[in-house]
Amino acid sequence: MLRTTLIAALIAVTAPALAQTADPVIEAARNAGKVGEQADGYLGLVSGGDADLKARVDQINIKRKAVYTDLAAKRGVTINEVAAATACQLFRDRVGPGQAYRGENGQWTQRQGSAPVVMPSFCGG
Length: 125
Known about the structure:
Blueprint: H1 2-11, H2 14-19, H3 24-31, E1 35-38, E2 43-45, H4 51-75, H5 79-93, E3 100-102, E4 108-110
Parallel strand pairs: 1-3
Antiparallel strand pairs: 1-2, 3-4
Keywords: Signal
Pfam families: DUF1318
Protein name: DUF1318 domain-containing protein
């Protein structure tokens, strides 16, 4: 957990950039609960996705993996550690009310109002 917390501090600047997308289709799907952030640091399809939406999610995840790979090499950590630390940041900063997120238990949850997002155990306090 401490290692993930330290990695999170190192990538805090990168996470907001990963969370942002200029794709209005993805944003609409996020707001409709069709796609959401996952505890593994990648975007996932919740439900109702067609081939175009899946392709867009896949493209975002390809870009994220490239960033994770680059950061992991620069920081001397694993890609999964960078992805997990980024997930912590995305869960804190990106999942808005009504949006879906997938916890480390594999279950999709919809954030209710101002209720906090249930953070993965590896995110620390």
